[in-house]
Amino acid sequence: MDPSSGNKIGNSVSLPGSLYMAVSQIRFNDRLLVGSYGSVYCYDTSNYNLLWTNELSGCGYHFGVSLSLLYEYGTALIVGFHGHVVSINPNSGKTNWTLSLPGSGYGFVSVVIRKNTIIAVSKGYLYAIDASGSILLKDGLSGLGYGDAIIGSKDGEDQNSSNLIFARLSAREHRSH
């Protein structure tokens, strides 16, 4: 909507089963990739026709989906949700691999990508995962790890691992009731 006129300036689509759930979206070439209520949808941006749906099967009930695109190569859509990280081919919608994060249970998973490494945060753990879905590092963060993963680099350059300054967690204290 144009805030000054109230006129519609874009397109909208209804996501099956999404009800009132939050929606994550990213653009990939001429495609719009949308995640909501445990599924990922791919739309053609020229006409907003649905090209494919991936229901992220085999991972149990999922409440929310967080999306991040492996942008260096444009070959994988990385989805973090419900204690899992999933790699999806953004052209076909087929699942490349699924990884259940040990120790995370069925928690929300925040994912970011640095070079060819996926950084995931869930339920007090930080994980480094390679592009094939193998865990390179699992680090328990006592009382932390319930927020978003953020990556920073020296002088805005992200050329090699020595430039990584921090993987900061927007953490909140976990209190049991």
From TrEMBL:
SUPFAM superfamilies: Quinoprotein alcohol dehydrogenase-like. This is Pyrrolo-quinoline quinone repeat domain-containing protein. InterPro entries: PQQ_rpt_dom, Quinoprotein_ADH-like_sf, WD40/YVTN_repeat-like_dom_sf. It comes from the Eukaryota. Gene3D superfamilies: YVTN repeat-like/Quinoprotein amine dehydrogenase. Residues 28-138 form the Pyrrolo-quinoline quinone repeat domain. It holds the Pfam family PQQ_2.
